Amino acid sequence: MATTTPLLEVRQLAITLQTQRGAVRAVHDVDFTLARGETLGLIGESGCGKSLTALALMGLLPEGAQAAGSIRFDGQELLALSDKALCRLRGNRIGMVFQEPMTALNPVHTIGRQVAEPLRLHQGLTFAQARAEAIALLERVGIDQAAQRFDAYPHQFSGGQRQRITIAMALACGPDLLIADEPTTALDVTLQRQILELIKGLVAERGMALILISHDLGVIAQSVRRTLVMYGGTAVEWGPTRAVFGARAHPYTQGLFAARPQLGTARAAGARLPTIAGTVPELADLPTGCPFAGRCPFTEPACHAALPPAVALDADHEARCIRLKKAP
Ligand SMILES: Nc1ncnc2c1ncn2[C@@H]1O[C@H](COP(=O)(O)OP(=O)(O)OP(=O)(O)O)[C@@H](O)[C@H]1O
């Protein structure tokens, strides 16, 4: 019987960090749902809480960080799981690819061992089976002569190859969800496209769900069906990528697009790229109302009073801005 439980359901996620200025709220009021096989992009400027949100899903928040709210994965509340159970889930059902491949790779272990280990640990394969499976995976992600290079160490590979190896590690146990946090940012432009195509191909081929984190609107536009725009630790607009990119309902989404470099657009010599006026607020100084109120060209007194409620604009497309009116 087909199940209707979403793969991932995040409700009122809040993440508090301990800093020298005391406890600060880094993420708050984040809600989203991901169906099986669905693709979602998280976009927003540096520091808006994208990575912390992803780390909370993996149970990998930094020390001293505390998550509240609810994260249900396949019906199971992750915030209530033991470290051991979370570790099992990470190895088996949720894979993650980071911006910098050496975050995931251990420099003193061979790449073969690192790809094969989750297969032995979580799937109970024998060494020979895990080795054969790891070689097949490494070949699939584009590592040539994987059998001969099974016992090589991470430093013997280029940056692009290392990112391919971490993708093989993340996929080893056939996860239902892949989280890729800026997976191409550390690579040069030609490699960025190849790695993105590899991830998209693998997601489609395996029917995995994908959460792709990026600050690059082009990457998000090409890769995911739904998009969630974050600012100041919260979601300000979300919905089908086409709807969000087409309507740009939230003033912050409009600002992101205005600040995007445009290929082929004539710009006067020396002219500067438009930027969003003002700076991202410090976590410890986040306003109580709309987090964007301090930079928004349309701010009115009510914006400072409380976080605007989500307004439904269209099927599955919502934004938090008091200028938007609920559909009748
Ligand atoms: N371990 C930590 N200790 C203190 N502050 C932290 C820690 N990790 C993240 N932060 C802060 O929390 C906020 C959100 O960080 P996060 O890494 O989620 O942002 P991001 O949107 O992913 O940005 P980037 O694109 O730069 O990775 C930032 O202000 C960041 O400085």
Task: Write a concise keyword list for the protein shown above.
23% strand; four-stranded antiparallel beta sheet; 328 residues; binds adenosine-5'-triphosphate; eight-stranded mixed beta sheet; 9 helices; single chain; globular; alpha/beta
Helix-strand blueprint:
Blueprint: E1 8-19, E2 22-34, E3 39-43, H1 50-58, E4 66-73, E5 76-77, H2 83-92, E6 94-97, H3 111-123, H4 127-140, H5 159-171, E7 177-181, H6 189-206, E8 209-214, H7 217-223, E9 226-231, E10 234-240, H8 241-247, H9 251-258, E11 311-314, E12 317-319
Parallel strand pairs: 3-8, 3-9, 6-7, 7-8
Antiparallel strand pairs: 1-2, 1-4, 4-5, 9-10, 10-12, 11-12
The structure holds adenosine-5'-triphosphate.
In short:
This protein is α/β, with parallel strands linked by helices. The protein is built from nine helices and twelve strands.
How is the biggest beta sheet arranged? 8 strands, mixed
Distance between the termini: 37 Å
Basic shape = globular
* Average pLDDT number: 90
Structural class: alpha/beta
As laid out across the biggest beta sheet, the strand order is 6-7-8-3-9-10-12-11
SSE order: EEEHEEHEHHHEHEHEEHHEE
Poorly predicted runs are none
Strand content: 15-25%
Separate helix tally = 9
Number of strands: 12
Helix content: 25-40%
Radius of gyration: 21 Å
Which small compounds were modeled alongside the protein? adenosine-5'-triphosphate
